[in-house]
Every structure is written in structure tokens, then in C-alpha cells.
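wait is this the right file?? whatever heres the structure
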């Protein structure tokens, strides 16, 4: 065990010494890889900040249930238990409010400023209605299933029209879904770029150290012993690039938050973009190192196979 750890420690030291050489081009390669990683890291940071906000938004969509104008008041009030039953059958909590046509007309006069125009009609054109506020939705995405409940309410006798007052919730959920797909595609594309940069970097390193590799083989070095320093070089390159990309994204949040603060104040909000937490940061650094390691593995095995 001690021998195995010593071999790996020696390989890490070899990788660090190579990266520290003035002509290794390490810092330039790190910069190129960091630029590629910064875009998906920034996108993930924005999505992670938006996600809790979207989950805390109104996920209690309202349904306005308008009855036919000629529905008698007794039949209108009798629909209340049926509407509650549909909500309970959907395993949702609900608050139901009956809005008689007289109350709806008075509200229209008070809030619209059209009192004289409404009085000129001579009769009340508004129907009785119910307002159903649904609860029990975990997030905006789940609230999209409210359409199934609305369709069932539409079948009740005497119901003229059911209006779902949460279309914006569905639009927000759809938008976030599109952004996640776009971010995943961008991340996959740039991951290929990272692997290609590391692949080329390790290929040049193998070519520069070809004579050392041949001598090592002559004295009995195994392929694992020869591969190991190059693997660590790729992993360190990816790790350093990931750290640089995360640092750049974190620094960029300050001027961006200044612009967001002015916009948020218009909506009485204090929304700000925050850096990623410890766990997501560690996961991104691990992914960066893994990409570097994978690129190094592909390059080393291919180049050393040619030297055999």
C-alpha cells in the first residue's frame, strides 16, 4: 500500500514539475479550457438561482368557473360540493369561493370606473361564478396538470366556461425546461472542446518525452507507471481550469447584480444572483478534473501505442 501511494505521489510530482516548465504552455491551455467551461458554469449558476424562486412562486393556480347566465341560484349554490369533490379526488387542497352575480357587478363598478356604462345596460350581464384556488402543488411544473382538473369541471351541468388563471406558471415552467436542455447541449458541446484541448496537450507532452519513455521501458517500467504522470497532468489541467472558470463566474456576479438590483426594485424584489454552494462547486470541479483525465487517457493510450 505504501509503495502504491508512493508511486502515485511521484506521478503527481512529475505532473506538477512538467506543468511548471516555462515552455509547457500550461497556463495558456488552462485559460482556453476555462473559457470553454465558464459558459456552462455561468448558465448553471443562473438556473440554480432561478430554481428556488420558481418553486416559491404562486403554485396555487386559480380557476374561475363561470356558470350559464340562466342558471337558477339554487342550482348554482348546489354546484359547490361537486366542485370540492373534484378537487379532493385530484388529491389537492382547495379554497372555494362563490361569487354571486350581484357581487361581481358591484366589484366591476368600483374597480373599473364604468359604473355609468354598466347602469345603462339596465340588467346585470354577469353570471354567478366560483373561484377555486388549488393547493398542494410542489412546483410550477407540477401545477401544469391543472388543465385536467379544469376539463373535468367544464363537464359539470350549468358550467359555461372554466378559465385557468395560471398560464404564466406553465410558460415559466416551459421556459426553464428549454433553458435546461439548451444548457445541457452547450455543456456537452464544450466538454468535447475541453477533451480535445487536453488530448492535444498530452499528445505534445508525450512526443516531447518520447526518449524518456523509451528509456523507462528498457529498464522495466510498466505501462501503468508510464501512463500515470500524464493522467495526473490532464486531471490537474481540468481541475485548474474549472477553478479559474468558477472564479471568473463569481467575479462576474457583482456587476451583474448591480444591473439586476435596479430591475428587481421595480417589482419590489431583492433578487440577487449568488455563487454556487459548496456541493455544486465540488461537483463541477470534479467534473472538470474528470474531463481532463478522460482526454489524457485517450491521448496517452493512442500515442504510446504508436511508440510500441
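ok assuming it is, sequence goes like this
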Amino acid at each position: 500500500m505504501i509503495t502504491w501511494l508512493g508511486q502515485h505521489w511521484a506521478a503527481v510530482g512529475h505532473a506538477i514539475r512538467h506543468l511548471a516548465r516555462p515552455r509547457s504552455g500550461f497556463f495558456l491551455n488552462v485559460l482556453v479550457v476555462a473559457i470553454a467551461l465558464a459558459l456552462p458554469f455561468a448558465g448553471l449558476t443562473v438556473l440554480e438561482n432561478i430554481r428556488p424562486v420558481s418553486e416559491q412562486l404562486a403554485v396555487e393556480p386559480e380557476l374561475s368557473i363561470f356558470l350559464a347566465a340562466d342558471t337558477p341560484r339554487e342550482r348554482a349554490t348546489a354546484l359547490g360540493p361537486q366542485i370540492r369533490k373534484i378537487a379532493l379526488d385530484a388529491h389537492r387542497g382547495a379554497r372555494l369561493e362563490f361569487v354571486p352575480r350581484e357581487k361581481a357587478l358591484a366589484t366591476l363598478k368600483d374597480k373599473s370606473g364604468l359604473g355609468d356604462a354598466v347602469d345603462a345596460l339596465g340588467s346585470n350581464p354577469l353570471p354567478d361564478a366560483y373561484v377555486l384556488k388549488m393547493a398542494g402543488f410542489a412546483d410550477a411544473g407540477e401545477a401544469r396538470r391543472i388543465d385536467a382538473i379544469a376539463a373535468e369541471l367544464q363537464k359539470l351541468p350549468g358550467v359555461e366556461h372554466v378559465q385557468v388563471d395560471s398560464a404564466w406558471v406553465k410558460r415559466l415552467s416551459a421556459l426553464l425546461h428549454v433553458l435546461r436542455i439548451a444548457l445541457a447541449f452547450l455543456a456537452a458541446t464544450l466538454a468535447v472542446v475541453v477533451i480535445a484541448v487536453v488530448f492535444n496537450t498530452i499528445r505534445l507532452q508525450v512526443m516531447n518525452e518520447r526518449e524518456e519513455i523509451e528509456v523507462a521501458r528498457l529498464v522495466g517500467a510498466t505501462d501503468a507507471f508510464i501512463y500515470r504522470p500524464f493522467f495526473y497532468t490532464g486531471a490537474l489541467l481540468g481541475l485548474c481550469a474549472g477553478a479559474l472558470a468558477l472564479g471568473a463566474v463569481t467575479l462576474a456576479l457583482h456587476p451583474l447584480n448591480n444591473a439586476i438590483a435596479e430591475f428587481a426594485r421595480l417589482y419590489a424584489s431583492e433578487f440577487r444572483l449568488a455563487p454556487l454552494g459548496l456541493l455544486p462547486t465540488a461537483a463541477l470541479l470534479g467534473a472538470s478534473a474528470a474531463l481532463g483525465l478522460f482526454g489524457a487517457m485517450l491521448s496517452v493510450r493512442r500515442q504510446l501505442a504508436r511508440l510500441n
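The domain at 62-165 is CATH 3.30.70.3040 (Alpha-Beta Plaits). so i think its the right one actually
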